[in-house]
Design brief:
By secondary structure, the protein is an alpha+beta fold. It has a domain of 95 residues: Gcn5-related N-acetyltransferase (GNAT) (Aminopeptidase, 3-Layer(aba) Sandwich), CATH 3.40.630.30. Helices cover 24% and strands 40% of the residues. It has a 7-stranded mixed sheet. A hairpin with a 2-residue loop joins β3 and β4. The longest helix is centred in the N-terminal third of the chain and has 14 residues. The radius of gyration is 14 Å and the shape is globular. This is Acetyltransferase (GNAT) family protein. One of its GO terms (molecular function) is acyltransferase activity, transferring groups other than amino-acyl groups. It holds the Pfam family Acetyltransf_10. InterPro entries: Acyl_CoA_acyltransferase, GNAT_dom.
Length: 136
């Protein structure tokens, strides 16, 4: 398994987002990509396990680093790939607290990875989310 980081979004990352968010979760494809994908403050991460299986982006947000567009292919879940991706982001930004607006259905995953709830439930793309953070 290999985790790489890039300053810009790659075709493989686009394919992962479409597979997980659009095809699996029915999120409109038009909102999967935005201006933060090309921002100088954004770093993109991708996990390869013979082929691309997971990705996310991380960007500076206030005094923290915000994880966004975190996705793992359905066939690759339950193999600690998500945990390794979170750890790679933290290792890339060792002096920063990580925050995420997590899908409520994934709250237990984030808790297992050291995140705690920091806000009320809200909706993004018509899916329940909750703000969470991971202290250093």
């Amino acid at each position: 398994m290999q985790i790489l980081s890039f300053p810009q979004i790659t075709p493989e990352i686009k394919q992962l987002r479409v597979a997980v968010f659009h095809l699996e979760q029915n999120i409109p494809e038009r909102i999967l990509f935005d201006e933060n994908d090309s921002s100088a403050s954004t770093t993109h991460f991708i996990v390869f396990d013979q082929h691309p299986v997971a990705s996310c982006r991380a960007r500076f947000y206030n005094n923290d680093v915000k994880i966004e567009r975190f996705c793992v292919l359905k066939t690759s879940r339950g193999q600690n790939i998500g945990r390794k991706l979170v750890d790679a982001v933290q290792n890339h930004f060792p002096k920063f607290k990580l925050v995420i607006s997590a899908q409520l259905s994934a709250e237990k995953f984030w808790e297992k990875n050291g995140f705690v709830r920091e806000g009320e439930e809200h909706r993004e793309a018509d899916i329940p989310h909750v703000q969470m953070g991971r202290k250093l």
